[in-house]
Amino acid sequence: MASGSTQCSVLLAGGGSGGHIFPNLAILERLRERRPDVGAVFVVSQRPLDAQILEKHQQRYTPIPVQPLTAKPWRWPAFYQAWRQSVDMTAALMRQMNVRAVAATGGFVSGPAISAAHRLGLPVALVNLDAIPGKANAWMAGRATAVFSVYATPTLAKAQRIGMPLRKVAIGPADRFKARAAMGLDPERETIFVTGASQGASSLNRMMIELVGQTQVRKALRAREEWQVLHLTGDKGEEAEAARKAYEKAGVPARVLPFCDTMGQAWCSASIAISRAGAGSVAEAWVNAVPTIFFPYPYHKDLHQKHNAEPLTQAGAAVLMLDQIDPATNARQLGPRLLSLMSNSTQRYQMAENLRNTRPPDGAAIVADWLSAACKG
Asked: Which of 175, 160, 167, 179 is nearest to 360 (CA)?
């Protein structure tokens, strides 16, 4: 728990996944550029990942016991008890830290923070990150002072449209040759970047292992020493080693990493990317202008990640494919599309231009400006 303070502070709420925490880190990054004197505290879930992320970034945080609302009625009393405890904890923290304004990135952690802020009369900004807002975000929007949304959605019709709040480390340099060198790649080779986001994606890892075994793809990757692969597998030891062996056996130059702290350089290295379609990954592809083949997370019944990529596919800047989970099936459907992009530099250039021409403004800066003004009020 944070110690007492008379310093003016902001509270940043959102947790349960890196996708809710990293946007708040980006907002704080821009806020500190404007107001180095402002203190900050994060309110997150009790999941270990939240603590790992914020301890790594040396940020003050408080976990609260709130859990996602369940459809099982017999668990509602426990949910309600945890909710009330979380609201009380957050309200006490706001008083203790002299919090003047709150930014919440949605999800189950944000609800108690917005309720506590409402109780204390503090201004709140809700930052909706998803193309299809959940019921919690729709409820919170009615209690927020300002609403920002990465996607246009009728559910949040009055929201101000912004770009995904991204840390500067997620935005690569303009020079792809320098980015490749910084990533330990051959600066002269065109690069295929494969990423399943921070935790990796087993189905994409297995798909690539299958893909490089295909004769036509293997030959294209080896032809005239023009291509290489940068593959982020996630922290999955056996899969990372299997991928390394597959690339080595196929004679395909590849760098396989479990994770990467310099995602902007990784994206900027790429001529083509193969990625999950989480909101953060879509935003990183967009801001770094990388033609991308997106595979939405296949285990959500509504496949809602596909909606994140729709603005890019509608602009002719990305390709959307459904993850069939089976590696052979995925490799068969990916192979022709990938080969087509590899052989057509004009198409890749046009897709990159479409990304540059349509990308939204810096969401982290816009929310930081709002927080800075709110703290002065």
From this structure: 160
The CA distance from 94 to 281, in Å, is 32
Please state, in angstroms and as integers, the Cα–Cα distance from residue 165 to each residue in 134, 149, 367, following that order: 19, 10, 8
- The tens digit of pLDDT for each residue in 327-370 reads 999 999 999 999 999 999 999 999 999 999 999 999 999 999 99
Q: Residues of the chain whose pLDDT is less than 70?
A: 1-6, 198-200, 224, 236-237, 377
Task: Report the Cα–Cα distance between both ends of the chain, in Å, rounded.
Answer: 27
Q: Which residues contact 48 (CB under 8 A, 6 or more apart)?
A: none
β-sheet with 99-104: strand ranges across: 61-63, 39-44, 9-13, 99-104, 124-128, 146-149, 160-161
Residue 122 is given by DSSP the state -
Question: CB atoms < 10 A from the CB of 24, how many?
Answer: 28
Alpha helix positions (H), 107-257: 110-120, 135-141, 176-182, 202-211, 215-222, 237-250
Three-state DSSP state, 104: strand
Using a CB cutoff of 8 Å and minimum separation of 24, what contacts does 63-70 make?
Answer: 63/15, 64/89, 64/90, 64/109, 64/112, 66/108, 66/109, 66/111, 66/112, 67/108, 68/16, 68/108, 69/108, 69/136
pTM (predicted TM-score): 0.89
**Tokens for 174?**
């303009």
Closest listed residue to residue 212, CA positions, set 188, 228, 196 = 228
SS3 content of the chain, % helix, strand, coil (to 5): 50, 15, 35
Sequence-distant (6+) residues with CB within 8 A of 227 are 189, 190, 191, 192, 220, 221, 252, 253, 342
Q: What are phi and psi of 192, to 5 degrees?
A: -100, 120
Q: Give the helix/strand (H/E) hosting 335.
A: helix 327-343
Paired with 190 in beta bridges are 227
Check if the beta carbon of residue 101 is closer than 8 Å to that of residue 375. yes
